[in-house]
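Hi all, posting the design record for the shared folder.

TITLE: backbone redesign
STEP: 1 of 1
STRUCTURE INPUT:
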């Protein structure tokens, strides 16, 4: 029989793993851990102030989600950014997102609607600013909230795909801005959040489809630009 102390220790350990995962994921997405860089477990322990065991479990989870890669006999590394792989990330993400957002609109409670409306308000505050890291972190919270509200545990698989997409966008944000503006990305999220908060499943589906078409357009554009002589992915 498990004691209350054992349960508390398990919960504490689990929360430490979740915290380590979020912190390391953030370092990967924001390019603080550069593509191709090796992962030094001891350095992360000292840097994050979290024990070696939770750090190791978080790294294994990140590797399972393809946010880290195994190098034979050399440990783990941050994956390089690859446009061909990113197109496959988008292909999968699109299918899941077209399920996720309408499901969240259909199943959200009134309390959850208020939470999502607050997220939409925070997106509005960031609209037109250059606070890109804040925007990426809010985007992470938005997607995690939608997954929770959708009440479909299998849709958690979209979260690492979004992490890879955020990293791809940030790595090429200067190139992106040669043709696109930052505002439409935020505007799409506001429309999607509003539709979910309103419980309007059809509107949520329509805005998600528009957003996916926009993301596909700029991903293909970046892929074309990166394939030109003298251009390369970070």
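Okay, here is what came back for every position:
SEQUENCE:
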């Amino acid at each position: 029989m498990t004691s209350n102390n054992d349960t508390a220790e398990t919960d504490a350990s689990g929360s430490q793993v979740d915290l380590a995962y979020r912190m390391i994921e953030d370092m990967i997405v924001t390019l603080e851990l550069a593509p191709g860089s090796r992962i030094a477990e001891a350095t992360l322990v000292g840097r994050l102030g979290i024990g070696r065991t939770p750090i190791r479990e978080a790294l294994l989870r990140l590797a399972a989600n393809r946010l880290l890669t195994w190098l034979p006999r050399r440990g783990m590394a941050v994956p390089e950014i690859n446009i061909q792989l990113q197109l496959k990330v988008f292909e999968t993400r699109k299918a899941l997102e077209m399920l996720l957002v309408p499901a969240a609109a259909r199943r959200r409670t009134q309390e959850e609607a208020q939470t999502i409306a607050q997220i939409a308000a925070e997106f509005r505050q960031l609209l037109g600013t250059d606070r890109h890291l804040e925007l990426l972190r809010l985007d992470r919270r938005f997607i995690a909230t939608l997954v929770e509200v959708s009440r479909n545990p299998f849709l958690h698989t979209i979260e690492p795909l979004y992490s890879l997409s955020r990293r791809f966008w940030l790595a090429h944000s200067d190139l992106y801005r040669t043709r696109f503006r930052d505002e439409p990305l935020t505007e799409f999220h506001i429309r999607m959040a509003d539709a979910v908060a309103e419980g309007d499943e059809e509107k949520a589906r329509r805005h998600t489809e528009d957003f996916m078409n926009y993301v596909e357009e700029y991903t293909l554009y970046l892929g074309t630009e990166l394939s030109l002589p003298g251009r390369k992915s970070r």
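COMMENT: Residues 4-77 form a domain with the Arc Repressor Mutant, subunit A fold (CATH 1.10.10.10).
Let me know if anyone wants the other runs.
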